[in-house]
């Protein structure tokens, strides 16, 4: 099987694409009950995640190495792939009930898989071309997903906004890539780094262009991760999009942005001494602070979660200026836990949507009476987001912030400690709005009639919940996998305890 | 040969025009077109840099041109999805004036 | 025998537990209590010791210290305590169920008072010191429904606590420098303790002794912490007799006497002691002149007499240092004992009167002599005793006090002044005591009441105390004499010359000063007789002119009480209100300010999120421009 | 007796199991109190057995005894690896500092559960949360690993947040969230401190371990002075807010005023002790130079807390708020004791924590009784209650007296020793804290006079007021008996505390 040998490394993408093509057709097979579509969608997701887990956690059956210089299969991409797949599982599980009454369900699942395909491409990309292609595959699918509920004004509006800003940002990204290509003469990230490290006359001469390229790239990728001030679309889109899709955007799409950012900055631009650490550090602090501050004053839970994920992006960005292996591991660990807790929280909201409770904060009043399960799950997700031990969010924030503390101690620069302090203070600030939701659920009076959570949504939530507890209580394995993933980046100082 | 700077300035101008259009034009279709202009500005860059590669870096390289092809394809997909979205928005709002599409805010 | 002294406080304590905790209301509490005390009083010193606390290198061990000084206190407490408990059987009869609490508290008091006097170190003493304060608090507030009683109880506790914290500070200073609080170890170091190279400097020792004396000032109601005692009269009269006349208030005098080995190393402290004693004696006597509440007259009289004792101790210290004589020390304790008996008598008589009349106000009494013969006679005996007419007990001790003060004048002129104040006090004492007696028992009945003699249960203790008031002065001449007996407790301080009883009597009656004090007492009585017994004296002259102003000042207790009230309410309470506001609006205001910022900044910031997608796009552009500016200009400017 | 059994873990797990059972009761929620009482009582009994098994003079060769070598001498030592990659180990053990607090925790939890016997609203949640709170506090007092310590430290916040928020008074929302966030901010400072110590150890020795002992070994002599000062500041802030210290105390009165009685009891009785415990267990021994550098700051804060707390008490109208402020004042003594950095002072500080735990529990319970029977705690509306509730009045009086430091009751010994050590360290500054003794007497007695004595109040309907109920009386009585016993025989506890404190302070040269 020569062919197989050639494309084996593309196996995950191929499987996903296969199902992408199958699903719209399947739509016609299931006339009345469309739920089997979700089961079918889960097939590739579960299979692939099983493969990735056995590869990453148990060292069994590693993926075939890439045959092209554009993409690379390593622990880093594996971990991100796992995140995307797992979020996909959670989203798909909670979807059938949510879109029960909608048309074109086959396309819905197909688009989800397509978006995930794009994300996996980004995770593996080591070349700007592949990176851009991946970003666009994921991006365009999610534009469509955001507008999936065509009958709803808000869904359409979300899609429009997402599309306009998304298109604008991809133009920025592409222009930036073109400038990088012009300056360095290559689109391979590692090669760019090599060129910049030993600048030719042309490169020295075109420093302004490089600066522009860098800024454009920050803006373009900053859009994906919802970095302030490129975050404005996020709350609107998260609010308007169907809730499971909001979960997908917050928990997966944003992580794709980080995958790109890590690759480009930690490998590619490391050599560009434009002191970008300070810039990213400042933006990290601004992002978390602005996100949390605005989240406090929200009345819609989805908007609140959107701002909260803006803030979480700020935390993860700490990994960049610290720039050590340990910090990167911390960042990825937080990406992993954030995927569970944020998607879990969105799925609770989705479940509430399914049972017609609504998504205003006021709708949470007395939720404990109506559905103790939802209230409990939401409480755990929120506390985990706030970083309360022994939940997952605490473990990952701990590693992340401690990397900043460590590097500030040795070898410095010492201002990095302010990243940890800002993160810590912001965690306290975020507790304010999380605790308010908890208060609504447990301490306020609301409607009394109990609701029944549909089993598949419940399964999604239970899965996320279990992971939040498991990671929180036994972070050991996860930390070491993240460290392996970070180890895939050559040349980073270790910057943490062995 | 025309100096590479000319190309860069030209594409940058194009890019700025596109960006200006995205920010100021009310009509969603026009906004979409402006995004296309921005993408094309980047394409010009890619092609130009690819063509000048030997001058600038001493070796020939066509990956820029390949990249441009990719991006044209992507832009096409984007336009397709974009038009569909604009269409569905028009159905709900009876307008494609982006100023008026603002239920979701704050 | 002496090793069983710890049983002394145990008996009453058992009585306290029985009364307090047994559910059934039996007769036990009255009789049992009396017997318990009697039994305890009979028992007499080292007993079980246990380590209470280890402070650094110093182990605080609870132990016993019984010497002649203790014995005097034990006698007073046992005798007065027993009689008061018996008397209470009649006096508190109407209280019904409340008696249980009463007897429990009284028993507790007697127990801890015993504990106080047999303690062998300052810390143990301090513990009991505070506990007697507690009992005093509980008993003053026995009628807690009366707002005045509740308030007086609180005042008494707080004011004495001001003294107590000084005492505590003194203990802490001693502990640090001397490394021990045990009397035996502490006093054994004398006089090296403050000598050059000794563990404690002269100044520190002066401070320590003054602080310890501060405790005495609070407990023994000395100026300027004396105002709680008149207020304490809100409690039952039996309590006043036992606690606020005979025993607890003597604890301060006892403490000062106990600390003699330290005090005599610091003449400055002794001077302060003596001055405070003298000032208190005179000041309190003046207020007693105008008091109309029978118990308050007695209360001020108590303060005044306590001042005498303190004065004697202060002056006596100089005698010990300079003259190698222990006369002042003995005089103070002698007066303490005698005063215990006659003042308890006076209070119990007053109680008997109040019991019969139903009021404390002497202006509403009068003519009680014929209704209450026993009470009136016993009270007369008490009054004569306190006035210092020979051969009643008060004469002997008061004379010794004045003599000691006068003779120490040889070493410091201020003692002459203090002596003069003492004599003036003696005059005033005689006057106000008889004013009180005349107003109460002679003349016409001034209001409606049906007085009758109190029951036997009350009059018998009165008679016993009257006999003691008549005779306890003769203790001076029993055996080798009271002075030589008592000097046993400070014999380490030096060798004292002691007179034989016979020589002593001769000395007393050949000394002209003796006649001075008798004379002023007689004059005082005569003036009182003129004004309050004989008809036709227009008392309104007191209300006019300078004397009117003077009377007003005295009626307002020299405004000291008012000063404290103002200080407490306007000063401390006012400050606390300010502090509360500060806490609420400034400290918490800052906290809330931060939380307001956190909760509301977002409200402003989110307005930027206008919903207009082009606004978002322009912000992206703006963000990039700012980034470029930041990278190009601000970072280099910041030194990066 | 317990050499072969992981006794501490069992005691920690008991309430946790109890909580799970409680939550799973379903419609049998009304039995929650029996379950809770059974599990907490079991923990109490075991912890008491453990006291008797504790060796005052341990045999170093015996199993279960941890050879201290200058760190603390722990007994009932257990150690299991938890997160290997970060060097996180679940280690528990007890020494003379933690043992009294440990027993205090099981005791107060049991008594609080009994005290809340008539809780009708959501009993499952109520008793379950109390048990979780117990788990958290027990964990804090036994854990010897920074990471685990922090986990337990934070776990405590959540049940308390719920207790205030669900069963609290009228302004509960504000109080609950203020408590939660304020103390959480402090915890985060602590977290940063912990991280920094952990990494500094790694930088210096290459070892990765969160075990307190390892950090101490690497750190107490080798950490640079500036580092010690900075980290001492961070941890001190973290612990001090819990303590609480002026001016970071304002969460406390609000939390207390709104919290249900049992919540207040646990809050003041146990949660505040966590702060005091942290300082003596972590900050001082591990960062001795930092402690020395910030000694005067500690003392100044302690003095401010003592005096200011007492002064503000005087102005309070709400009985419970007054008691809350009094806690600030009394915990100031704990800090003052530590600030002397002498054996005497720190021993007294630890003892004061124990004493305050007993006493303040009584006070809050009595406030609860007053609230329960009279419907208000505003002092001005009360008066003459002795007539209606003599037993309650007697208990309250005794509680107040214990709190104002009456000798013969438990707080006196501690306060005296703190003052004595203060004098040996700072001389005549002694007169500042000693002043508070008088103010304390003033506010307690004044409150007593206005609420319990005097004529019966007419401002509230007293026709239905009756004496203390059995389930309220029993816990208070138990505590009062203990207050009296330890007041008369304080040395019993000092024998436990003193050796441990000597080890903690051995770098500071003598007592």
Care to give the gist of this entry?
By secondary structure, chain A is an all-alpha fold. Chain A has 22 helices and no strands.
Question: What can be said about the biggest beta sheet of chain B?
Answer: none
What is the overall silhouette of chain A?
A: globular
CATH topology of chain B: Helix Hairpins
Shape of chain B: elongated
User: Structural class from helices and strands of chain A?
Assistant: mainly alpha
Oligomer: heterotetramer
Structural class by helix and strand composition of chain B = mainly alpha
User: Describe the biggest sheet of chain A?
Assistant: none
Low-confidence stretches of chain B: none
Text of the CATH class of chain B: Mainly Alpha
Q: Helix fraction of chain B? A: over 70%
Overall mean confidence score, pLDDT of chain A = 89
Q: What is the CA–CA distance across the termini of chain A? A: 43 Å
Radius of gyration of chain B: 18 Å
Succession of helices and strands of chain B: HHHH
Extract low-pLDDT stretches of chain A: none
What integer value in Å does the Rg of chain A equal?
A: 21 Å
Tell me the span between the first and last alpha carbons of chain B. Answer: 53 Å
The CATH architecture assignment of chain B turns out to be: Orthogonal Bundle
Q: Helix count of chain B, per DSSP?
A: 4
How many domains of chain A? The number is 2
Summarize the structure in words:
With 498 residues, chain A is mainly alpha-helical. Helix content of chain A is 76%, strand content 0%. Chain A has two domains: 273 residues, no CATH class; 224 residues, no CATH class. Chain A contains 22 helices and no strands. Chain B has 106 residues and is mainly α. Chain B has a single domain, classed as Helix Hairpins (Orthogonal Bundle), CATH 1.10.287.3510. Chain B contains four helices and no strands. In chain B, 41% of the residues are buried. Chain D has 511 residues and is mainly α. Helix content of chain D is 70%, strand content 3%. Chains C and D meet through strand 1, helix 5, helix 6 and helix 24 of C and helix 7, helix 13, helix 17, helix 18 and helix 20 of D.
């Amino acid at each position: 099987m020569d062919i197989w040998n050639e494309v084996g490394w593309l196996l995950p993408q191929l499987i996903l694409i296969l199902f992408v093509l199958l699903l719209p057709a399947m739509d016609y097979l299931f006339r009345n009950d469309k739920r089997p579509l979700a089961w079918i969608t889960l097939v590739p997701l579960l299979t692939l995640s099983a493969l990735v887990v056995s590869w990453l956690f148990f060292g069994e059956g590693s993926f075939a190495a890439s045959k092209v210089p554009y993409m690379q299969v390593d622990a880093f991409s594996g971990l991100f792939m796992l995140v995307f797949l797992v979020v996909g599982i959670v989203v798909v599980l909670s979807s059938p009930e949510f879109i029960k009454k909608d048309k074109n369900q086959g396309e819905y699942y197909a688009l989800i898989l397509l978006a995930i395909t794009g994300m996996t491409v980004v995770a593996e990309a080591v070349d700007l071309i592949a990176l851009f292609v991946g970003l666009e595959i994921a991006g365009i699918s999610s534009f469509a997903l955001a507008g999936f509920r065509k009958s709803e004004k808000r869904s359409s509006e979300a899609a429009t906004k997402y599309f306009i800003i998304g298109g604008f940002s991809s133009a920025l990204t592409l222009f930036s890539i073109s400038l990088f290509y012009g300056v360095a003469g290559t689109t391979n990230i590692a090669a760019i780094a090599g060129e910049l490290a030993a600048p030719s006359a042309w490169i020295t001469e075109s420093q302004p262009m490089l600066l522009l390229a860098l800024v454009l790239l920050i803006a373009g990728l900053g859009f994906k991760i919802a970095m302030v001030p490129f975050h404005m679309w996020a709350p609107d889109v998260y609010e308007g999009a169907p809730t499971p899709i909001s979960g997908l955007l917050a928990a997966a799409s944003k992580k794709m942005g980080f995958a790109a950012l890590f690759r480009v900055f930690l490998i590619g631009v490391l050599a560009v001494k434009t002191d970008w650490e300070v810039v990213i550090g400042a933006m990290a602090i601004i992002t978390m602070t602005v996100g949390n501050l605005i989240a406090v004053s929200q009345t819609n839970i989805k908007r609140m979660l959107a701002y909260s994920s803006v803030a979480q992006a700020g935390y993860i960005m700490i990994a960049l200026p610290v720039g050590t292996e340990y910090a990167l591991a911390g960042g990825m660990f937080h990406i992993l836990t954030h995927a569970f807790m944020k998607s879990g929280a969105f799925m609770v909201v989705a479940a509430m949507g399914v049972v017609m409770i609504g998504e205003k904060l006021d709708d949470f009043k007395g939720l404990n009476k109506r559905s103790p399960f939802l209230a409990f799950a939401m409480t755990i997700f929120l506390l985990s987001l706030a970083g309360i031990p022994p939940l997952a969010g605490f473990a990952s924030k701990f590693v992340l912030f401690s990397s900043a503390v460590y590097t500030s101690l040795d070898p410095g620069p010492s201002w990095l400690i302010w990243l940890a302090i800002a993160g810590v203070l912001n965690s306290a600030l975020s507790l304010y709005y999380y605790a308010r939701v908890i208060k609504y659920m447990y301490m306020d009076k609301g409607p009394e009639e109990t609701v029944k959570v549909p089993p598949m949504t419940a399964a999604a939530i239970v899965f996320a919940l279990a992971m939040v507890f498991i990671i929180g209580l036994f972070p050991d394995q996860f930390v070491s996998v993240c460290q392996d993933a970070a180890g895939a980046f050559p040349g980073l100082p270790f910057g943490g305890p062995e | 040969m025309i100096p590479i700077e000319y190309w860069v300035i030209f594409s940058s101008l194009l890019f700025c025009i596109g960006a200006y259009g995205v920010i100021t034009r009310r009509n969603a279709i026009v906004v979409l077109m402006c995004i296309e202009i921005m993408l094309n500005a980047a394409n010009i860059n890619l092609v130009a840099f690819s063509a000048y590669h030997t001058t600038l870096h001493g070796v020939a390289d066509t990956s820029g041109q390949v990249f441009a092809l990719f991006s044209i394809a992507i832009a096409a997909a984007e336009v397709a999805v974009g038009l569909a979205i604009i269409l569905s928005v028009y159905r709900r709002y009876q307008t494609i004036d982006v100023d008026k599409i603002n239920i979701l805010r704050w | 025998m002496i090793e069983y002294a710890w049983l002394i406080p145990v008996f009453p304590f058992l009585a306290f537990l029985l009364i307090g905790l047994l559910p059934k209301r039996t007769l036990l509490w009255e009789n049992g209590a009396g017997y318990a005390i009697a039994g305890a009083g009979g028992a007499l010193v080292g007993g079980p010791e246990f380590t209470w606390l280890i402070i650094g290198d110093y182990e605080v061990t609870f132990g016993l210290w019984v010497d002649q000084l203790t014995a005097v206190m034990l006698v007073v407490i046992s005798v007065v305590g027993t009689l008061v408990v018996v008397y209470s059987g009649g006096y508190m009869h109407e209280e019904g169920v409340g008696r249980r609490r009463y007897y429990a508290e009284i028993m507790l008091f007697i127990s801890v008072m015993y504990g106080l006097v047999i303690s062998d170190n300052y810390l143990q003493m301090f513990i009991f010191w505070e506990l007697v304060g507690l009992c005093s608090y509980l008993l003053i507030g026995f009628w807690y429904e009366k707002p005045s009683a509740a308030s007086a109880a609180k005042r008494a506790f707080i004011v004495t606590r001001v003294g107590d914290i000084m005492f505590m500070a003194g203990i802490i200073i001693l502990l640090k420098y001397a490394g021990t609080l045990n009397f035996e170890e502490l006093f054994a170091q004398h006089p090296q303790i403050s000598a050059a190279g000794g563990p404690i400097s002269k100044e520190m020792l002066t401070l320590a002794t003054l602080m310890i004396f501060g405790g005495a000032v609070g407990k023994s109601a000395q100026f300027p912490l004396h105002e709680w005692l008149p207020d304490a009269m809100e409690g039952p009269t039996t309590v006043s007799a036992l606690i606020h006349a005979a025993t607890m208030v003597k604890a301060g005098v006892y403490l000062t006497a106990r600390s003699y080995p330290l005090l005599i190393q610091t003449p400055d402290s002794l001077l302060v002691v003596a001055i405070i004693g003298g000032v208190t004696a005179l000041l309190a006597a003046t207020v007693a002149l105008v008091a109309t509440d029978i118990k308050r007259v007695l209360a001020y009289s108590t303060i005044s007499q306590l001042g005498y004792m303190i004065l004697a101790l202060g002056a006596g210290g100089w005698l010990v240092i300079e003259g190698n004589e222990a006369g002042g020390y003995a005089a103070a304790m002698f007066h303490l004992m005698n005063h215990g008996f006659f003042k308890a008598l006076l209070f119990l008589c007053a109680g008997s009167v109040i019991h019969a009349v139903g009021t404390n106000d002497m202006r509403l009494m009068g003519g009680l002599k014929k209704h209450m013969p026993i009470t009136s006679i016993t009270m007369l005996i008490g009054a004569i005793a306190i006035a210092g007419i020979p051969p009643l007990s008060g004469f002997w001790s008061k004379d010794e006090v004045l003599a000691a003060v006068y003779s120490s004048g040889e070493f410091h002129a201020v003692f002459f002044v203090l002596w003069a104040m003492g004599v003036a006090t003696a005059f005033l004492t005689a006057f106000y005591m008889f004013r009180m007696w005349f107003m109460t028992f002679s003349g016409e009945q001034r209001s409606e009441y049906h007085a009758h003699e109190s029951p036997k249960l009350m009059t018998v203790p009165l008679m016993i105390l009257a006999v003691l008031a008549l005779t306890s002065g003769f203790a001076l001449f029993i055996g080798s004499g009271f002075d030589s007996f008592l000097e046993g407790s400070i014999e380490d301080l030096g060798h004292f010359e002691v007179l034989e009883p016979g020589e002593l009597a001769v000395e007393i009656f050949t000394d002209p000063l003796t006649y001075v004090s008798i004379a002023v007492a007689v004059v005082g009585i005569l003036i009182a007789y003129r004004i309050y017994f004989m008809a036709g004296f227009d008392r309104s002259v007191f209300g006019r002119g300078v004397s009117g102003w003077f009377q007003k000042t005295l009626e307002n207790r020299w405004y000291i009480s008012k000063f404290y009230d103002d200080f407490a309410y306007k000063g401390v309470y006012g400050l606390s209100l300010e502090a509360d506001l500060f806490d609420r609006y400034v400290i918490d205001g800052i906290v809330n300010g931060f939380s307001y910022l956190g909760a509301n900044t977002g409200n402003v910031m989110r307005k930027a999120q206008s919903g207009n997608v082009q606004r978002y796009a322009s912000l992206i552009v703006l963000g990039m421009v700012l980034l470029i500016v930041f990278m190009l200009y601000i970072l280099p400017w910041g030194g990066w | 007796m317990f050499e072969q059994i992981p006794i501490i873990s069992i005691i920690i797990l008991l309430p946790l199991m109890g909580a799970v059972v409680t939550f799973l009761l379903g419609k049998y929620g009304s039995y929650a109190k029996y379950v809770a009482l059974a599990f907490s009582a079991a923990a109490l009994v075991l912890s008491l057995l453990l006291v008797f098994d504790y060796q005052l003079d341990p045999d170093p060769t015996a199993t279960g005894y941890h050879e201290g070598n200058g760190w603390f001498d722990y007994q009932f030592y257990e150690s299991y690896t938890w997160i290997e990659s970060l060097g996180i180990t679940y280690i528990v053990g007890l020494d003379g500092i933690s043992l009294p607090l440990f027993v205090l925790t099981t005791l107060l939890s049991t008594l609080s559960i009994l005290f809340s016997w008539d809780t009708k609203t959501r009993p499952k949640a109520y008793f379950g949360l109390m048990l979780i709170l117990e788990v958290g506090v027990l964990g804090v007092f036994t854990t010897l690993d920074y990471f685990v310590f922090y986990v337990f430290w934070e776990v405590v916040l959540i049940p308390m947040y719920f207790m205030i928020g669900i069963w609290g008074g009228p302004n509960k929302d504000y109080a609950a969230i203020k408590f939660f966030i304020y103390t959480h901010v402090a915890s985060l400072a602590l977290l940063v401190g912990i991280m920094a110590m952990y990494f500094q150890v790694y930088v210096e020795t290459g070892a990765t371990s969160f075990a307190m002992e390892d950090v101490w070994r690497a750190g107490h002599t080798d950490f640079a002075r500036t580092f010690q000062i900075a980290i001492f500041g961070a941890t001190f802030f973290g612990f001090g807010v819990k303590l609480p210290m002026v001016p970071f105390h304002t969460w406390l009165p609000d939390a207390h005023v709104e919290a249900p009685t049992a919540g207040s009891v646990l809050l003041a009785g146990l949660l505040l002790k966590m702060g005091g415990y942290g300082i003596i267990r972590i900050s001082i021994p591990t960062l001795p130079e930092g402690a020395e550098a910030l000694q005067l700051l500690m003392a100044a804060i302690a003095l401010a807390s003592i005096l200011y707390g007492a002064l503000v008490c005087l102005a309070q109208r709400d009985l419970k708020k007054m008691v809350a402020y009094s806690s600030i004042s009394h915990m100031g003594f704990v800090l003052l004791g530590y600030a002397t950095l002498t054996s005497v002072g720190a021993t007294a500080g630890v003892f004061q924590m124990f004493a305050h735990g007993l006493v303040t529990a009584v006070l809050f319970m009595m406030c609860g009784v007053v609230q329960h029977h009279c419907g208000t705690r505003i002092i001005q509306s009360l008066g003459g209650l002795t007539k209606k509730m003599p037993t309650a009045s007697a208990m309250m009086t005794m509680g107040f007296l214990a709190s104002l430091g009456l000798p013969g009751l438990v707080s006196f010994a501690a306060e005296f020793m703190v003052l004595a050590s203060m004098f040996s360290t700072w001389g005549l500054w002694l007169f500042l804290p000693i002043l508070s003794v008088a103010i304390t007497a003033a506010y307690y007695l004044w409150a007593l006079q206005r609420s319990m004595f005097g004529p019966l109040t007419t401002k509230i309907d007293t026709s239905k007021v009756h004496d203390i109920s059995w389930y309220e009386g029993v816990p208070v009585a138990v505590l009062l008996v203990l207050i009296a016993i330890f007041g008369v025989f304080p040395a019993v506890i000092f024998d436990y505390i003193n050796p441990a404190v000597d080890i903690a302070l051995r770098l500071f040269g003598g007592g």
